[in-house]
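Hi W., the S-adenosylmethionine complex you wanted:
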Amino acid sequence: MPLLPDRRFWTALAYQMGPGRYYQPAYRFIANDIAVERGALLDVGTGPGWVAIHAASGRADVDAVGIDTCPHMLEFAEQNRQGRLNVTFRKMDATRIVYPERTFDAAVSVQSAHHWSDPAAIFAEVYRVLAEGGVFYVYEADPDAEVPPDWIARIGAFPPDAFIKRQWERFGMDAARWGALRAVAEASPFGPDIGDERHGFYRRLVCTR
Ligand SMILES: C[S@@+](CC[C@H](N)C(=O)[O-])C[C@H]1O[C@@H](n2cnc3c(N)ncnc32)[C@H](O)[C@@H]1O
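Structure:
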């Protein structure tokens, strides 16, 4: 057992206390918009788990499963779950999802795609585990978007717009990267009819099986 936690712990802690707090309205808007009222939802790269948690909260007929490769993120997700029985978190690489074909009715991924080293494998795996007609929503922040006041929870003036925009420049996707991700989705089993929309300050791909 190491004396000090590894670097990934500090990254996960910073995410839990930063974005995991001030993006709460965004997580709620996304969870409500993807509109799963019944069935199973997969959250790919769930991090501290908030989209899965909000998607399952108050929806007794929904089972939300969040997967992530980072054990520290999953520990925070487990804390944030607060005992809700219809949310589960699993350590799993989205390039090798353990669930059988057609397990999920919908899937979502928020601010994770910019980390994916093999997006083609992830689109193929999510396609495999989605039921016929199921939709995979892939969200990434657009660095050129305005900061909508109601999508960010602020304490006093923090975080200011300039801080938020810097985060999107570092951790979102500009038009070129977004176009490249979309091309991968179009070449995947979902393609070629991939929806490309805006939702709040995000772009999202809408990939229907
Ligand atoms: C910036 S965090 C976003 C977390 C959460 N979706 C949110 O919006 O708060 C991105 C997460 O994607 C996870 N991730 C990256 N590649 C992954 C993969 N191949 N399979 C599963 N999770 C992955 C990372 O470990 C990280 O926790």
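Residues 7-208 form a domain with the Rossmann fold fold (CATH 3.40.50.150).

W.
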